[in-house]
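Deliverable D2.4 — example input (structure tokens):
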């Protein structure tokens, strides 16, 4: 029995390792929300810093309907989701990454959905693994996890049950080895039902494991894969239920950190921005519409032991946008004040904070060749150095509102506005 278990673990570990090798080999791809492993960092070097109406915009195409689903890029194709203007249809759209031409579009029935004013019925971002594309589709009542081949053939369709959240849907899948993993978070369990981290077989869609989580406010953060130096890979899931590490193979909880919020007696805060890891620390942020903020830096301590809280901040951090990190520094945007911040990763000591513009920021910034691209809701793209000294490099205007997070692949920056998808690259 022990031999069989060891063999099973070894095989799964090999699958995960091969997956990581493939991701490394396909570094030009942007296969999930916020790119490879959710870092928000691109390997590209030649993306323009300055662009505008007649400069370095390779193409601009209209996207049917409305959605804040961020684009992903895999094997020369762009995938994103949308909803018809009357909300009776949901779409998964595939475009040619080089030209922007639509290759195929697949429709699902939908219904009128209640969402936050900054959300849409199609705010879920797909994920791809080179063989299949996975998309969570919300019809206004139930959510479904679907899988497609790159030619648009539906491979499987798994009903996830009803979503009960006052803000609408927004969860995005990730792929780890032969597992598709989601943070299927709900609101207060007494009212809405259980939240859960869930894994499905990537080939068949069959459920592999489900681990219930303590809910309070529906959260939208996307998990990532942590690779401890002296341990097996762990899937990190963040919500009001805490920061938890799971074994991607069978869902065994490896450790948990119970987030101690202090939002002026209003209950737990909501995690929308997705966590990252840098130099052995996990960074996670939370907040609410009233302006409360809380960011933590956690140091994992190995299997079974809760992580150590290294530092925390209860103001001036991000709520919706996810952070970035480079060379011992962590960067974020205070989306309430539109202030960019750089802090020491190990201590939280702020190196600088600079107001970017007069507009709010919902899109998560990306880093390209040591430069941070932050996009305001009004479509202003501000580029500055990812460095301990603030260095503004460019300010660009798209003249269109932006709520989705960008993608980067093959020397191109893809930005989804409320009506168009922009491709920014040297002509």
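Example output (designed residues):
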């Amino acid at each position: 029995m022990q031999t069989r278990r060891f063999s099973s673990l070894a095989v799964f570990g090999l699958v995960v390792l091969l997956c990581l090798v493939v991701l490394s080999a396909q570094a030009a791809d942007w296969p999930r929300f916020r790119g490879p492993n959710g870092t928000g960092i691109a390997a590209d070097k030649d993306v323009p810093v300055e662009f505008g109406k007649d400069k370095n915009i390779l193409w601009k195409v209209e996207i049917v309907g409305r959605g804040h689903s961020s684009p992903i890029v895999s094997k020369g194709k762009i995938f994103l989701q949308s909803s018809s203007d009357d909300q009776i249809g949901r779409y998964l759209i595939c475009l040619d990454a080089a030209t922007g031409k639509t290759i195929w579009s697949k429709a699902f029935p939908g219904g009128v959905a209640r969402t936050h004013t900054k959300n849409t019925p199609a705010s879920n971002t797909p994920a791809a693994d080179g063989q299949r594309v996975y998309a969570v589709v919300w019809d206004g009542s139930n959510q479904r996890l679907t899988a497609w081949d790159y030619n648009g053939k539906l491979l499987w369709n798994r009903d996830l049950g009803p979503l009960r959240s006052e803000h609408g849907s927004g969860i995005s899948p990730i792929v780890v080895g032969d597992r598709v993993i989601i943070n299927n978070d709900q609101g207060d369990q007494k009212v809405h039902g259980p939240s859960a981290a869930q894994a499905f077989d990537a080939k068949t869609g069959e459920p592999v494991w489900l681990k219930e989580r303590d809910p309070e406010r529906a959260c939208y953060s996307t998990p990532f894969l942590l690779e401890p130096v002296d341990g097996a890979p762990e899937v990190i899931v963040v919500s009001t239920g805490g920061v938890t590490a799971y074994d991607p193979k069978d869902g065994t909880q490896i450790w948990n950190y119970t987030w101690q919020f202090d939002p002026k007696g209003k209950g737990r805060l909501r995690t929308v921005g997705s966590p990252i890891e840098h130099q052995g620390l996990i960074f996670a942020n939370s907040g609410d519409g009233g302006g409360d903020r809380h960011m933590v830096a956690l140091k994992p301590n190995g299997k079974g032991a809760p992580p150590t809280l290294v530092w925390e901040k209860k103001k001036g951090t991000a709520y919706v946008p996810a952070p970035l990190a480079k060379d011992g520094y962590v960067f974020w945007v205070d989306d309430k004040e539109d202030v960019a911040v750089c802090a020491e990763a190990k201590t939280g000591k702020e190196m600088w904070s600079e107001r970017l513009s007069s507009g709010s920021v919902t899109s998560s910034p990306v880093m390209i060749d040591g430069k941070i691209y932050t996009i305001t809701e009004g479509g202003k793209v501000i580029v500055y150095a990812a460095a301990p000294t603030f260095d503004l490099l460019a300010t660009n205007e798209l003249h269109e509102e932006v709520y989705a997070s960008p993608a980067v692949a093959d020397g191109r920056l893809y930005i989804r506005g409320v009506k168009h998808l922009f491709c920014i690259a040297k002509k």
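The chain has one domain: 2-42+67-327.
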